[in-house]
Amino acid sequence: MYGEDDEVLKGRGLARKRWVTLQEANVLADVVEEEAPDHIFESGTANGYSTSWLGLLGTPVTTYDIVNRAKVWGERNPAHITCVNEKFSSMVEHAKTVEGKKLFFIDGNHNSSGVKADVEAVLEVIEKGDVIVFHDLNCRAVIRFWHRLAGDEGREVHYKETKYDTQRGMGKLVFKGVGHERKT
Ligand SMILES: C[S@@+](CC[C@H](N)C(=O)[O-])C[C@H]1O[C@@H](n2cnc3c(N)ncnc32)[C@H](O)[C@@H]1O
Predict the structure, then answer these.
(1) 33: CATH
(2) 36-95, pLDDT tens digit by residue?
(3) Is 55 among the domain residues?
(4) Residues 131/174, Cβ–Cβ less than 8 Å
């Protein structure tokens, strides 16, 4: 499953369009290794390609998509991966019950209202030390919200930012915790 290129996936009816590239999938796996979250929430499962890489170390992943597509892993989900056929914003209730460090991967609806809804959902539950990873920073709506969060608009900076030079642009924001201290 891992490392398969577009042609192989296409042959299995799992063609990717704007899914993460192999290089970006490796960045995701590296970020998970570095940050060691206790739980991962993903917006935009699609065929589960990025989900597989997020879950490479066995970290529990809950992934959301409004469309239920065939997955790269076949019929049976790996035990640590839960697919929810709903909007990412429904993550809020679940995330409130999760203990420990959270990582949010935002790769769902890329228009302005879609990114806004995803970011607002994250802001409801984010706590000190939690991490937000964005895919498609090359996309106008996505980079706009990145700048808002990262503080490039003259606001107080609440996040430590790292950008990755990938085909579609990726970045990581670690929440420094102003105003949202972890309860535990
Ligand atoms: C770019 S694809 C995700 C690719 C996937 N992350 C990968 O790299 O393998 C975007 C997905 O977001 C889904 N989507 C659109 N709006 C959504 C929402 N509000 N919540 C969750 N998923 C959404 C679409 O159906 C689509 O499958």
Answers:
(1) 3.40.50.150
(2) 999 999 999 999 999 999 999 999 999 999 999 899 999 899 999 999 999 999 999 999
(3) yes
(4) yes
